[in-house]
Amino acid sequence: MSSKYEKFFLNLYVFLAIFEPPILPVSFIYVLGCITIFFIILRDQGNIDLSIFKETTMNRFYGFFIFLSIYMIIVSLVDILFVSHDFMLINRLKGLNQLLILTGIQFLNIEVILHKVRSTKGNIYVVYDLIINCASIQGVLSILAYLIPTVRSLFLKFSSDLYQNPWLLERRGYGFSSSLIDLFGYGMGLAAGYALFTFNRHKFMRIIQLLLIMFSIWFNSRTGLIVFIIAVFLKIIENGNLFGKMLKISGLGVSLIYSFYIILPKIIEIGLKSMNATVKWIVTDFGGVYDSLMKTNYVVNPIQNVNQDSTYYMLLQDLVKTPDNLFQKYFGTGYSVYSAVNGYRTDVGYTNITWMFGLLGTILFCVFIIYNFRMACLNTSKKEKTIIIFNLISYFIVLVKGRLIGYGPGIFVNYLILFATIYFSRKNEGIDGEVNEKI
């Protein structure tokens, strides 16, 4: 097979692994998982090569998730028998599926990608390019969905029931991905950040790619805007000595204050007058947050016909709400409240993790995540360290908005870069930023 076809199929595989597009009436991640397992068995002729799992520390990461699964089972039994007597079987099984099955499939996908990059003598910058390329393709598909209603209908044919909501359908849902909301924006924001950090490699192409990615972010998930802003801030302070960085931070701070008090109110006023539902939705939500912070009155009754869990008014309350029972508070309930049928429910990531693992388990989870990001910073270049820091900051900020356990475009992209960085740094490849163009 020629390198041209190899490049095409690798990009296609990465696109499918990141976005798991709704091609079939069943969740595509399970279909791709079966294909991946078959491919690995065929590739290794039955003798499965586990070297990449060990060298990337994916085996240790997955082992931690197995530990969390056992912990959840024990906590669930105690909760059912002695505490709440609330069965919540579906929610508990969903949590185990996220930790074991969905995470396991993604790790297998990453193994296939890194194995192929390694076999063609590529490095970490090849992986950045793959992600940016796939996000750019998603940007093109988002434009097509926006301009051609029949294309959009085709893309959403097997998508979540979420898009049967007329309010949501009017404002977002322009793309071809299993998720087109927060975790989609998270992944696209990371890709936009990588394009910014590697801008000097393909300047003209990077401009085009950034425009495509930002279009998709704008019309689907403002979470991606926040993630990209983090990248811009880190890019500004990336180079220079301590004095220069402090000067840049000071200048950036002044610019942000000026923008927040002078420019942002003007943008909100203009946006609220827009006839475009998506633009008005984005500006209304930012305007509502601005109102609550500054005690202004740009937005009155800011969000109509929306589930109250999604409004900024509920965010802080959701963020700090923990179970009342002491056992549940410190050790968890064994299930998340993201899709609870009865009672309290929220999509706030920190809250869901606390309900699953308790305060003690949540602290352990966060420490483990930080430790693995720290591992990725060893023996890497300055730019790669900056990207890992970008991933880490983005992870804990996006965790406010959504659960980062299981599958999501942003979750997969984060895992892929984390493990690719660890893998190539241990092999002393990619530190100089040179790329083998075979991929």
UniProtKB/TrEMBL annotation:
<feature type="transmembrane region" description="Helical">
    <location>
        <begin position="211"/>
        <end position="234"/>
    </location>
</feature>
<protein>
    <submittedName>
        <fullName>Uncharacterized protein</fullName>
    </submittedName>
</protein>
<feature type="transmembrane region" description="Helical">
    <location>
        <begin position="353"/>
        <end position="373"/>
    </location>
</feature>
<feature type="transmembrane region" description="Helical">
    <location>
        <begin position="176"/>
        <end position="199"/>
    </location>
</feature>
<feature type="transmembrane region" description="Helical">
    <location>
        <begin position="61"/>
        <end position="83"/>
    </location>
</feature>
<keyword id="KW-0472">Membrane</keyword>
<feature type="transmembrane region" description="Helical">
    <location>
        <begin position="246"/>
        <end position="264"/>
    </location>
</feature>
<feature type="transmembrane region" description="Helical">
    <location>
        <begin position="126"/>
        <end position="148"/>
    </location>
</feature>
<feature type="transmembrane region" description="Helical">
    <location>
        <begin position="12"/>
        <end position="41"/>
    </location>
</feature>
<feature type="transmembrane region" description="Helical">
    <location>
        <begin position="95"/>
        <end position="114"/>
    </location>
</feature>
<feature type="transmembrane region" description="Helical">
    <location>
        <begin position="404"/>
        <end position="424"/>
    </location>
</feature>
<keyword id="KW-1133">Transmembrane helix</keyword>
<keyword id="KW-0812">Transmembrane</keyword>
